[in-house]
């Protein structure tokens, strides 16, 4: 990590940012400030994930599975198989991080050696209980992979009914996931989004650059994740940091003081905050632009519910005054915005949400509803931006027909349909 800040921010004076500048600095670090200036390339997948540090995995496939959607929000239209290829080629790994996530292979050893966080994680606890209850069966499964090679859950045929726990998985799927959480198995590749498991040592041996041997000490791993969290967030309050990689215990201002003293982090003040913000040394140029109010946001796009910008609901509320709940876990009768509503990012603000469904067989991008926040002013630029975001997302899915069935405020649906047809 850098030992001191860059020339732009090497002063001892504490910079003060407006709240708006803090928002834009965060989005700039996340790659969401402006649209892409060229077509996406295969290598952009790895660099985009490296910028975020982690890419959370979720399997819900109403619009697009979350990891693909997060990349689309930043890269624009790209080929989904590029993410699969990056994993299979050993440039990415799967690990328990924020939750189950893709991480750069170059940082996998930090995740491998983060013992404190894994010990308290639900997946680790469940894996340990599963192994205690089914040790012989799990050991036999591991030996089968050792002798036969990589296997998927579907390769284990079973007539017995699936269990009620672990999402109704059959025992072999539970055992595979338990060995993955315990570190004995890793994901070699995915086939139609299904994990293909192999022994951890065989997976990393295939990588272009296998992880270093030895075990990192806990303090070094924790510091790495703290610094990477601040770097990925662009600007962070101490209370936001632990959530990014699910660190325990929580991070405090006192813990960050040595990193500030070493010049790895820069402390800043933000209007309306009663505690300091922190910026990574590598963001010196962005910080200078934020301090001079010269950052500009031009991108309008849809975000996944598991996008780093919104996955921490408290941070999204703090930074954007955006109250967001994913309602797929809410009974249908109690939902306000639909099963899988996507936040709308427009020119650096979270302005609303979209409930959409990609009807691929019909070539239809069905928009069940669009809801703007109460304080958002409906302007031609906003309508144009949202319409463009919907059309871009629809084209990426191969569902070129866009139909907006409902929207609030009144008249928005008609304006969006007209803009999409135009």
Unreliable spans = 1-11
Put simply, the count of helices is 17
| Class from secondary-structure proportions | alpha+beta
Radius of gyration: 22 Å
What is the helical fraction, as a range of percent? Answer: 40-55%
| Cα end-to-end separation | 49 Å
Q: What is the 3D form?
A: globular
The largest sheet, given as strand count, sense and whether it forms a barrel, is:
6 strands, mixed
Strand content: 15-25%
Query: Would you tell me the overall average pLDDT?
Result: 92
Give the strand tally. Answer: 15
Describe this structure in words.
This protein is an alpha+beta fold and 422 residues long. It is 41% helix and 18% strand. It has 17 helices and 15 strands. It has helices at residues 19-30, 43-52, 66-75, 81-88, 108-112, 115-120, 122-133, 135-148, 171-182, 200-205, 218-233, 238-245, 253-261, 284-291, 313-320, 380-397, 412-421; strands at 15-17, 55-56, 92-96, 100-104, 185-191, 194-199, 236-237, 265-270, 277-280, 300-302, 342-346, 349-359, 364-372, 401-404, 407-408. Strands 10, 11, 12, 13, 14 and 15 form a six-stranded mixed β-sheet that branches. A hairpin with a 3-residue loop joins strand 3 and strand 4 (100-104). Helix 1 (19-30) packs antiparallel against helix 14 (284-291), helix 7 packs across helix 9 (171-182) and helix 16 (380-397) crosses helix 17. The radius of gyration is 22 Å and the shape is globular. Residues 1-11 have low confidence and may be disordered.
